[in-house]
Amino acid sequence: MPPSYVNFGSKRRLYRASGVHREKKEWGEEQWIVNREYCGKKLVLQKNRRCSLHKHEKKDEVFYILSGLVRMEISDKTFTLTPGDFVHIPAGAYHRFTGLEDSEIMEFSTNHQENDSYRKEYSGHVEGERFVRQRKIVEKFPQAKVLVAGDAMLDTYTIGDVTRISPEAPIPVAKFRSRRHVPGAAANAAANVASLGGCATLVSVRGKDGAGQALEALLKKSGVKTLFVIEENRATTEKHRIVASDAHQIVRVDYEDIHSLSSAAEKKIASFLRRELKKHDILLLSDYAKGFFRPEFLRSCIAAARSARVPVILDPKPTGRDYLSAARGVAAITPNRNEAQILAGTQERSPFGVAAAIARKLFTNVFCTLGGDGMLLASPKGKTRDFRAITKEVTDVSGAGDTVAATVALCLASGATMEDAADVSNRAAGVVVTKQGTATLTQNELLRVL
Length: 450
Hints:
It contains eleven helices and 26 strands. It has helices spanning 128-139, 186-195, 210-221, 263-277, 295-307, 323-326, 337-344, 351-362, 400-413, 418-432, 443-448, and strands at 21-25, 28-32, 39-45, 49-50, 53-55, 61-67, 70-74, 77-81, 86-89, 95-99, 103-109, 118-121, 124-125, 145-150, 152-165, 172-185, 199-207, 225-231, 238-244, 249-255, 282-286, 312-315, 332-333, 365-369, 375-378, 384-387. The strands form six sheets. Strands 18-17-14-21-22-23-24-25-26 form a nine-stranded mixed sheet, with helices on both faces. A six-stranded antiparallel sheet has the order 1-2-3-11-6-9, with no helix packed on it. Strands 16-15-19-20 form a four-stranded mixed sheet.
């Protein structure tokens, strides 16, 4: 056994001891923390990424799993490693690690020489072909112009600390801590388009009130162009949630007028649409049943887009089976499970059967969101495919449907197939449901989960 030793002040430093050297990799990032006499790194490994299949002739390595879930291949054996596991890799053994989850690994080895790596296969994404194809789609988002029309809302969150029950009634007392406002419904769909890098224009209606002014200011700050019709006899729809500091929602107060738009408002919105359709690649109609879309007006919006040769995505809120006839002519529709059941008008309970029935009746593509179960895609030719949810940590599903509709619109405007649009939008939803409240995601956040 060799004697132990202490080496003070090495003169052969590979990187300064005062800092961490970071190297980006196809699978994540290396964070070097020591020097040339021995090699110490933290490996930040992304889910579904893997390093090259390689060996070293001159060094032994030990990998210690700090977090996540890692598949380790060594010669002809494969292991699944969890936090606390470590593995020794002798010199001369081909090996490769793959992230089954986002993971962190500590690597220690006897030395480091740049020319002591022999590769059989290169590092990258586990599904390399799909990843490259979908990354190109997402990178085209800044060229996509999406026109959004529909019911816009202001989502307000008042957060308070709950430490006692009221002496006046058996209800919690929330001591005010903070308040925030975010765009909701059609406004959230437009905000998602802008957050993902696309060009978003919102056509909607609001009241002549503080909530409407706040909503318009938020959208402009988010980079969304707004074309609001202001109706003095209408309150801007606002959902005000009182939330405990542990993120538990106590109560929601809704301010809304759900009567149909006036004929003057409809004419002005129709005028906005005719003008803006010429400048956009796709039209997203966001229906929350707050009065924006009468069946006749929905039908006329779709007809205007078809005349302009602009495809239409409809995020529906059906109130009955007759809604289906007004929705004819859309390129795609994005109902959730309950909305799909109403649209299908059938006793069929299987999500596959329901989605297929809608696709058949409308002769369109159906992106049916299933919450924690992911998404179904049904084509008008009868083909169905499911996409499993990518996250197990669901914090809040508020607004996830807006994210799906916005991402589908961006994907189709960027030349994606329906299958890729479903897969990418399902991944986008998997990001926003991990956030508190109505939320958006960025292009970089989406690229990380492809």
